[in-house]
């Protein structure tokens, strides 16, 4: 990525006009190609141009902000078709809805970048650390702590290195950066100048870029560089993930419309959906660690679960790679959400919710040995209880047996997921083509769901092994046709069949 211009500098009027005209010129050709007639393409173009012009007036802050907004140009284009599509009159997306989604996600990303840049500037700029040491009333070279984000994270500086932690280390002097900025307004400019001089702002955006714009999978080294700052970034990452989820929930109806229309697998929305889906997974993974459990548990118990669980939003997309992150997420929340998953079994309104509940419980038990015996006992009591017959009965029983088998330590059938090509210390990690496209709800030869067979491997692997060491997949290896198959599997219902065991 290039160097960031000074914050707050808007595009020159001529440059902005050229940018808008260029985008509209491209979009006019695209609209004619994808729309069924000229009038429809003009309606789409009119809506898209409104998005561009209103956005340029409301969001002139920085090149970094515009880069994020421009990455959603395809979403604006897709919403035009939803707005005019006669097949979905109740699924319209207004300009304000699009603007709000971009603004919310942009704000979350900007918050992450600013916090990261501030911390990086402090670790790089000896003069800035000296001023903070004066405020902390410590001698030059003496270690002290800087609290950030309402003391959710503590940065230790002053020695020969720096360290980041979620808890305050006793015995060291400490200051709160938020308090410093509030009581000493001039200090904000000092930090801003330092972020530019040390290139901290540029580097912060560069580090975070793979999280928001995966291609679709970032490299292991990139994730490790981000994960080094996890105590600072994880709560903001989870908030960003939920905002990406909102965009996905809106975009999903657009993908359905385009896939069912003349464009089919060439749907412009499909590639964007795939990219954002993996951004959701990577942001969730950043926040999924045992050390994050206190705030994760507090969050999960702070509202009534309806369609949410720690794993459901990823697991329902039905790929092994996303399911592996869903398992990490459930394990990170830990014992505090076991009761929530058990309640989901009694309230499930879709077979995928049944699968998710058993899957989440199994992941928690495997990653948290102290809870394993209690969860196995709960599952066996379900097996022995009187289960009312319903249309999810077969799914329930298969999930139950799959969960009990994997938690009982039976590894004899783990070879059933060998087609994923997962190996310990593999250069590809878990980001194999089979894992990115394969279905964890597929039945094995022995009649169990394959997703459960992979859980032991996932919970015993390092977090960075979700990613490859070097680029391994090209666009040809995962085509739009492959992505369309995965999307339809998860989101396009198939005709009912008797004794059907699949989960869509």
List the helices and strands and how they pair.
Elements: H1 13-34, H2 38-58, H3 63-70, H4 73-84, H5 95-124, H6 126-136, E1 144-148, E2 153-157, E3 163-165, E4 174-176, H7 177-183, H8 186-197, H9 200-212, H10 220-227, H11 230-260, H12 268-286, H13 293-300, H14 312-315, H15 320-333, H16 338-347, H17 351-367, H18 369-384, H19 393-407, H20 433-437, H21 450-453, H22 455-460, H23 480-491
Parallel strand pairs: 1-4
Antiparallel strand pairs: 1-2, 2-3
Helix pairs in contact: 1-2, 2-4, 4-11, 5-8, 5-9, 5-11, 9-10, 11-12, 12-15, 15-17, 16-17, 17-18, 17-19, 18-19
Write a concise keyword list for the protein shown above.
504 residues, mainly alpha
Number of strands: 4
Largest sheet: 4 strands, mixed
Strand content: under 5%
Helix content: 55-70%
| Arithmetic mean of pLDDT | 79
Number of helices: 23
What is the terminal separation in angstroms? 41 Å
Contiguous low-pLDDT stretches (5 residues minimum) are 1-65, 72-77, 79-93
The strand line-up of the biggest sheet is 3-2-1-4
CA-based shape: globular
Structural class call reads: mainly alpha
Order of helices and strands: HHHHHHEEEEHHHHHHHHHHHHHHHHH
The rounded Rg comes to 25 Å
Task: Describe, in plain words, how this protein is organized in 3D.
With 504 residues, the chain is mainly alpha-helical. It is built from 23 helices and 4 strands. A 4-stranded mixed sheet has the order 3-2-1-4. Helix 11 (230-260) packs antiparallel against helix 12 (268-286) and helix 12 packs parallel to helix 15. The longest helix is centred in the middle third of the chain and has 31 residues, at 230-260. It is globular and about 70 Å long. It starts with 12 loop residues before the first helix and ends in a 13-residue tail after the last helix. The model is unreliable at 1-65, 72-77 and 79-93 (pLDDT under 50).
């Amino acid at each position: 990525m290039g160097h960031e211009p000074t914050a707050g500098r808007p595009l020159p009027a001529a440059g902005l006009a050229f940018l808008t005209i260029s985008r509209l010129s491209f979009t006019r050709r695209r609209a004619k190609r994808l729309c069924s007639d000229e009038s429809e393409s003009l309606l789409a173009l009119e809506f898209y141009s409104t998005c561009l012009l209103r956005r340029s007036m409301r969001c002139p802050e920085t090149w970094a902000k515009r880069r994020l907004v421009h990455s959603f140009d395809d979403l604006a284009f897709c919403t035009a078709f939803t707005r005019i599509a006669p097949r979905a009159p109740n699924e319209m997306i207004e300009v304000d809805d699009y603007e709000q989604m971009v603004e919310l996600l942009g704000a979350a990303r900007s918050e992450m970048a600013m916090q990261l840049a501030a911390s990086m500037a402090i670790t790089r700029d000896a003069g800035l650390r000296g001023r903070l040491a004066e405020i902390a009333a410590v001698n030059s070279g003496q270690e002290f702590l800087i609290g950030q984000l309402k003391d959710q994270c503590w940065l230790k500086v002053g020695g020969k290195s720096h360290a980041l932690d979620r808890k305050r280390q006793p015995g060291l002097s400490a200051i709160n950066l938020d308090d410093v900025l509030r009581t000493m307004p001039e200090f904000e400019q000092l930090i801003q100048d330092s972020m530019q001089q040390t290139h901290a702002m540029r580097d912060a955006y560069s580090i975070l870029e793979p999280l928001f714009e995966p291609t679709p999978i970032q490299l292991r080294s990139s994730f490790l560089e981000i994960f080094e700052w996890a105590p600072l970034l994880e709560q903001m990452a989870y908030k960003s993930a939920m905002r990406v989820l909102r965009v996905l929930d809106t975009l999903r109806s657009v993908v359905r419309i385009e896939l069912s229309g003349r464009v089919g697998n060439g749907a412009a929305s499909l590639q964007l959906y795939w990219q954002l889906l993996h951004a959701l997974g990577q942001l969730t993974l950043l926040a999924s660690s045992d050390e994050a459990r206190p705030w994760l548990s507090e969050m999960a118990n702070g509202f009534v679960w309806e369609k949410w669980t720690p794993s459901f939003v990823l697991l329902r997309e039905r790929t092994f790679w996303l399911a592996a992150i869903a398992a990490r997420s459930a394990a990170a929340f830990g014992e505090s959400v076991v009761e929530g998953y058990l309640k989901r079994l009694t309230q499930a309104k879709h077979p995928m919710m049944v699968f998710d509940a058993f899957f989440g419980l199994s992941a928690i038990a495997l990653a948290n040995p102290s809870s394993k015996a209690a969860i196995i006992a709960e599952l066996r009591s379900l097996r022995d209880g009187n289960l009312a017959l319903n249309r999810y009965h077969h799914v329930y029983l298969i999930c139950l047996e799959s969960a009990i088998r994997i938690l009982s330590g039976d590894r004899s059938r783990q070879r059933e997921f060998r087609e994923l090509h997962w190996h310990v210390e593999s250069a590809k990690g878990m980001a194999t083509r089979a894992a990115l496209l394969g279905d964890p709800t597929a039945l094995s030869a022995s009649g169990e769901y394959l997703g459960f067979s992979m859980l032991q491997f996932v919970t015993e692997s390092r977090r960075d092994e979700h990613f490859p060491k070097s680029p391994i997949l090209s666009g040809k290896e995962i085509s739009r046709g492959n992505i369309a198959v995965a999307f339809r599997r998860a989101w396009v219902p198939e005709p009912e069949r008797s004794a059907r065991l699949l989960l869509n």
